[in-house]
Design a protein that fits this description.
With 100 residues, the chain is an all-alpha fold. The chain has 4 helices and no strands. It starts with a helix and ends with a helix.
């Protein structure tokens, strides 16, 4: 969901830049940027609050498909923590661009 909001805000930025739209378009893009950044930060907080161990423990690793070392529970925790970090870092520039 955060990726879709980010793509919409990005496309709006590009349309305004290429078409030199009026102030209404600029304000709309700013609002969409703030929404995209806020959703990214909210998603990171929700995943962080749920905890990587809770999310990873809900996965079923008994299947033969998950016998590779990559699919171990520790790799899941690392992946969740990386997602939280990226979501926090990605939210900042969106909010910053929307407030300019």
């Amino acid at each position: 969901f955060t990726m879709i909001c980010g793509i919409v805000a990005f496309v709006c930025f590009q349309v305004i830049w290429c078409c030199r739209m009026n102030q209404c378009g600029l304000i709309t893009t700013g609002v969409l940027s703030v929404i995209a950044g806020t959703l990214s930060v909210i998603a990171a907080v929700l995943v962080l609050a749920a905890g990587s161990s809770t999310i990873c423990n809900s996965q079923n690793y008994d299947d033969d498909f998950y016998t590779e070392p990559y699919y171990e529970e520790d790799a899941c925790k690392v992946g969740i923590n990386v997602y939280v970090g990226i979501a926090f870092v990605a939210g900042g520039p969106w909010v910053g661009a929307g407030t300019l």
